[in-house]
Specification:
By secondary structure, the protein is mostly helical. The chain has one domain. Helix content is about 90%, strand content about 0%.
Length: about 240
């Protein structure tokens, strides 16, 4: 067996091993991607539950409590100046308390909006990466389809082979095997890192979901107490508080 044939045989085995490694990575990448997308979907469920659900319910609670507070204060009998000042200053204090709280809520919501905007920018960047790789894959497929046509029309044929071309091609194939192996091994390490982070995220997402549900139960309990308080305030409006 000539030196060129030995190199070809070595490359054939190396390519078979690389095929197994690259395809194993492909399977792990798809499994990892499925886990990441599952986490993303769970995060969005938590976000909707926390913001569209709990956040809006709590804002409604806040408005209802302030409404009752102002109704109570406005219905207090105040004859002396000091009593009037007490009632009016307490009215101002209540409104300031609730305005301060709402301002802090707005601040936190604005920070969330800012982070969401940054997330959107990242998603746009991700889409661009995918679009670029799709473009590369399209070009790769077009070029190789053209290669097929060259084989079919006889432009590439064993009858046109030379010893020098075969040797150069085999050496080039060997070098490319080494580069592909380096990339595949690096991918393998990154897959492990991403999967580990994905599993950690899954645990945190589950914890958040539990906390969101527990908080909603507390909000529901608070709403019951608010309703009872509003009933008492409604009854109080029928007479002055002396």
């Amino acid at each position: 067996m000539s030196g060129s044939q030995n190199k070809i045989q070595e490359n054939r085995r190396k390519i078979f091993e690389l095929d197994a490694l690259v395809n194993a990575n492909k399977t792990k990448v798809e499994v990892c991607r499925a886990s990441v997308e599952q986490n993303y979907a769970a995060i969005m469920r938590n976000y909707n539950a926390a913001y569209m659900g709990n956040h809006n319910l709590l804002n409604q609670n806040t408005d209802e409590i302030l409404r009752s507070r102002l109704a109570i204060l406005s219905n207090m009998v105040a004859e002396k100046e000091v009593e009037v000042d007490f009632r009016e200053s307490m009215n101002n204090l209540a409104q300031l308390d609730f305005l301060e709280h709402k301002s802090e809520v707005n601040k936190a919501t604005l920070e969330v909006n800012k982070l969401l905007s940054e997330v959107n920018s990242k998603l746009i960047e991700i889409n661009r990466i995918i679009m670029k790789k799709n473009e590369d894959s399209l070009e790769f497929n077009q070029n190789n389809l053209a290669q097929n046509k060259k084989f079919l029309n006889g432009e590439f044929h064993p009858s046109k082979a030379t010893l020098e071309d075969n040797r150069d091609r085999s050496n080039s194939n060997s070098d490319r095997c080494d580069k592909i192996e380096d990339t595949a091994m690096d991918n393998k390490k990154k897959i492990i890192e991403v999967q580990s982070n994905t599993e950690k995220n899954s645990v945190d997402i589950l914890k958040n979901a539990v906390q969101i549900s527990e908080r909603r139960e507390k909000i529901n309990s608070l709403q019951t107490a608010i309703n009872e308080n509003q009933t008492q305030v409604a009854e109080m409006i029928s007479f002055k508080i002396k």
